[in-house]
Amino acid sequence: MKAAWFESFGSAADTLVLGEQPKPEPGPGEVLVKLATTGVNPSDVKKRAGAFPNLLDDGLVIPHSDGAGIVEAVGGGVDKNRIGERVFVYQAQYGRRFGTAAEYVALDQERAARLPDGVSFEVGACIGIPILTAHRCVFADGPVEGQTLLVTGGAGRVGYYAIQWASRAGATVIATASNHDDEASCRAMGADHVVNHRQENWGDAVLHCTGGEKVQRVVEVEFGANLPEVLKCIATGGTIATYSSTVVKEPQLPFLQMMFMDLTLRMVIVYAMPEEAKARAIADTCQALEQGGLQHRIAHSLPFEQIARSHELIEQGGFGGCVVVNIG
């Protein structure tokens, strides 16, 4: 089968190889998916660059966790009626070497969720890690109906799904964005208010939007860098659900201040989510997709031959939306 892989760590151009690899066979409890698309996430790029030094101990790695395609075969214990089913794949390269940057992937049937008819495979490649992360951040600590929820980096891959989940669930949503285009995107996805996180004291701007009422929940993309401003506008008893802290990788916490505010700090990563949380997120995603109730942003759609470029785009950043590679 056609595949992309790496056998050493380094830049995308120097390490990613395109060629042929053996077609996998589905084992017990697995499905074999013929992939049409593969999605590229920051975690995929970091792995290739060497974030996990032991990753290559057992041999080459076919990267990427997300993708979409059609179930071609099933292993023992799997309903044969799944053959021919359109699916989106998530968590394909977690704890194993073979991900979705190939024509085929064989993996646990739980990691291949039904993709409703009418939803493109390109969209299917976007709704693994980003949409499940957003769902967990919004709903892990209970219903949000009637609450005010702040989403920082609202135009990002996770942020724009978090806005939609919260808005659909009846929350008042305040998002942060850094330019007019991103502000417009946040509003189009359901944000009631948008503030610029590049301006000083933007936490005060959040309070201006609410008439001084503090927010109950925060979905946070840059925990360490944003914490001082978040503490200005989060209510006592509030929850911060964070999935990233890239700028300040090892934040120092103002412990006493946060303790006396009775704050809950939740760290979110898809791989460690409870299975029941994943199942709920997938069920809600399928329902929303069937209703046509979610918007998606594909910033770049590339041919398979440009897979190295897809990694470079993620590293460069500066755009909103997902990067998808078409395998076909």
Fold and architecture overview:
It is globular and about 60 Å long. The strands form 3 sheets. Strands 3, 4, 5, 6, 7, 14 and 15 form a 7-stranded mixed sheet that branches. Helix 9 links the parallel strand 12 and strand 13. It is built from 11 helices and 15 strands. It is 30% helix and 26% strand. The protein has 2 domains: 157 residues, Alpha-Beta Complex (Quinone Oxidoreductase, Chain A, domain 1), CATH 3.90.180.10; 141 residues, NAD(P)-binding Rossmann-like Domain (Rossmann fold). The model has no long low-confidence stretch (mean pLDDT 96). With 328 residues, the chain is of the alpha/beta class. Helix 4 crosses helix 5.
Rounded to the nearest angstrom, the distance between the terminal CA atoms is 11 Å
- Tell me roughly what share of residues is in helical segments: 25-40%
How many helices in DSSP terms? 11
Main sheet overview: 7 strands, mixed
Strand content range: 25-35%
> Can you identify the CATH superfamily of the largest domain?
Medium-chain alcohol dehydrogenases, catalytic domain
User: Structurally, how many domains make up the residues?
Assistant: 2
Radius of gyration, in Å, reads: 20 Å
Order of helices and strands: EHEEHEEEEHHEHEHEHEHEHEHEHE
Number of strands: 15
pLDDT averaged residue by residue: 96
Summing up helix and strand content along with how strands pair, one would put the structural category as alpha/beta
